[in-house]
Amino acid sequence: MIKSIRGTRDLLPPDTDLWNRVEAKVRDVFARYNFREIRTPVFEDTSLFARGVGEDTDIVTKEMFTWEDKGRAASEKSQSVTLRPEATAGIVRAYIEHGLDKRGALQKLYLIGPMFRRERPQKGRYRQFYQINAEIIGPPSAGSESPARDAEVLEMVATMLDEIGLRAWTLQLNSVGCAADRARYNQALREALKPVVHLMCADCQRRAETNPLRVLDCKVPEDQPIIEKLPRISAYLDDACRENFAQVRAMLDAVGIPYTINERMVRGLDYYTRTTFEFTHGDLGAQSAVLGGGRYDGLSESLDGPKAPGIGFAIGEDRLILALHAEGVKADESLDAYIAPLGAGMNPHALKLARELRRAGVRCDLGDETFRLKKSFEAAEKAGARYIVIVGENEAKSGEFTVKNLSEGTQVSVFRGKLAQHLQHAQ
Ligand code: AMP
Predict the structure, then answer these.
(1) Atom 4, ligand 1: residue with shortest CA distance
(2) Region for residue 315 given its phi and psi (left: phi exceeds 0; alpha: psi -120 to 50; beta: otherwise)
(3) Nearest to 119 by CA among 183, 179, 59
C-alpha cells in the first residue's frame, strides 16, 4: 500500500468541517478589517527565502525543500527553487514585482495556504502545514510605520481567536528594536557568550559566531540557565523604538487585551524589527505557539524593493484546530434531511424534491428506490440527518410528505411548500 509521506497528512471529514468553519470566520473578520486576499505560488526562487528569511535561520539552513529545476529547453537556465516555508517573503516579493507601493494606500493582504518545512514530525509539527497569513505593508507616507498598525493587527488577532471560539490563549509580546539596536545587542550577546559558549550545544556555538540573537531560540534544556543570564534586548532599544513599543502597549491596554512581555522571544526569522509576538495555548504541549508575527521594516529593501515597512502574522492552522479540539469545540455541520424514495419509479420524484429543497438551502442527502424503508432509516441515521422525508407514490401525488424527526421519533405531515422551512427551522 502506498502511504502519505512522513510529516504530511490527510485532513478528513468531520475534521475538515472545523477547518472550513475557521477559514470562513477568518475571511469574515479580514473583510471587516479591510484585508483582501492574495495568492502566491507555493514555490519560489530559493534566493528569496535565503535573503528574506535569513541565511542562518533553522528554516534556511535545514528545513527547506529545495530542488534544481533544470529547464526544458537548452536555452532555459536551470534554477534553484524551494517550496515556500512561510508566506511573508513571497507576499513582499509580489508587492515589489507588481509595484503595489504605487497604489499609494496601505496594502492589507491575507493568504491562506500550505507551507513546507523539513522538520522532525510530531504532534503539532508537520512537513506540510497550513498557515493563515496577514500583512499590512506600504510606503511610510501611508502610515505603515505607525504603532497603530501593530495594535490594529494584534487587536484583530484577538478578535479572530475570540470569534472562532478559542478561549485559553495568551499573547506574548516583545520588541527586537531596529537594525541598529539589534547590531548593538548582537555585539553584547557575542561578548557575553564568549566565556560560556564552549558549554553550549553545537547549534549555539555556531550561532554565537554567525547570529548570536538566534541563541535565544535554543530549546536545549542544559543551555537554558546560561541563556537566562544573557543581556536583555530591552536595554538596547533606542529612544524611538522604546517609545514605539510603549505606544503599542498603551493601545493594547486601552482596548483591554492582556499580554505578557517575553524578552527571549526573538522569533525564528531574521526579518523582524520592533514588535514581535506569539499567541500561545496551554494545551498544545511543546508546540505551544498557535501563531506568530511581527514587524519587518527592512524586508522589502533587502529584496531590492522600495522602502515598505510592514507588520504581519501567521496562524498555524493545524495547531489552531488542535487547540480547538483540546477545548472541546466541534463543528456542527449536521445534515437537515434524508430524502427516501419508497418504491419502484420514485427516484425521479425524490430527486425533484431534493433539488427544490437544496436550492432552498436545505442540506439533504438522497436515498435510492431499491432501499426498503428499514434500510432508508438506517442510511438516514448513518448520514446524521435530523429528519427523514418519505417520497412514496401517495406523497408525490398529494404533495404532502411524511416527515419523521429521527432523534425524537415524532412524525408529521408537511405540505411541499412548507417543507424547506420545516426542515431547516423546526427542532
Ligand atoms: P513561523 O512562520 O515560524 O513564525 O510560524 C508561525 C506559526 O506557524 C507557528 O506559530 C505555528 O503555529 C505554525 N507552524 C510553524 N511551523 C509549523 C509546522 N512545522 N507544523 C505545524 N505548524 C507550524
Answers:
(1) 292
(2) beta
(3) 59
Q: Using CA atoms, how far apart are residues 13 and 183, in angstroms rounded to an integer?
A: 49
Cell of 101: 507601493
CA dihedral of residues 255, 261, 263, 267 (deg, nearest 10)? -50
Distance 269 CA to ligand 1 centre (A): 11
Is the distance from the beta carbon of residue 268 to the nearest atom of ligand 1 less than 6 Å? Answer: yes
By most ligand atoms within 8 Å of CB, the mutation choice from 287, 288, 315, 324 for ligand 1 is: 287
Q: What CA–CA distances, in Å, run from 224 to 60, 218, 359, 421?
A: 24, 8, 61, 62
The Cα 276–Cα 153 span in angstroms is: 11
pLDDT tens column, 240-267? 999 999 999 999 999 999 999 999 888 7
The ligand 1 atom at the shortest distance from the C-alpha of residue 315 is: 7
The full set of domains in the chain, from first to last, is: 15-178+238-326 (3.30.930.10), 335-424 (3.40.50.800)
- Distance CA(216)–CA(116), nearest Å, equals 24
Smallest Cα–Cα separation from 337: which of 372, 375, 379? 379
So what's the pLDDT on residue 53?
87
pTM for the model stands at 0.91
